[in-house]
Amino acid sequence: MKVVERDLRAIRDAGRKVLVGYFMGGVTPDWTDHVEAAILAGVDAVEIGIPFSDPMMDGIVIQQAALRALDRGTTVDSVCADLERLRHTVPLLAMTYYNVFHHYGLERSAGLLATSGLSGTIVPDLPLEEATPWRTACDEHGLATVFLVAPSTTPERVRRLAEATEGFAYATARMAVTGRSSGTGDGERVVASIRLVSSVPTYIGIGITTGEQAQAAATVSDGVIVGSALVQVILDGGGPRGIEDLVRTFRTAIDRGTESVA
Amino acid sequence: MTDPATFMTAPDGEGRFGNFGGRFVPEALMPACVELEEAFRSAWSDPTFVDEYHRVLREFAGRPTPITPLERLSDKLGVQLFAKREDLAHTGSHKINNVIGQTLLTRRMGKHRVIAETGAGQHGVATATAAARLGLTCTVYMGEVDTVRQALNVFRMELLGATVVPVTSGSKTLKDAVNEAMREWVTCVDDTHYCIGSVMGPHPFPWMVREFQSIIGHEAAHQMDELGVGTPAAVVACVGGGSNAAGIFAGFANTRARLIGVEAAGGAAVVGGSPGVLHGMRSLLIQDEFGQIKEAHSISAGLDYPGIGPEHAHLAEIGRAEYFPIGDEDVLDALALLSETEGIIPALESAHAVAWIAREAGHLLPTGSTVLLNLSGRGDKDVAQVRAMMTEQS
Question: What is the per-residue pLDDT across A89-115, written as a single tens digit (0 to 9) for each?
Answer without folding.
Answer: 899 999 999 999 999 999 999 999 999
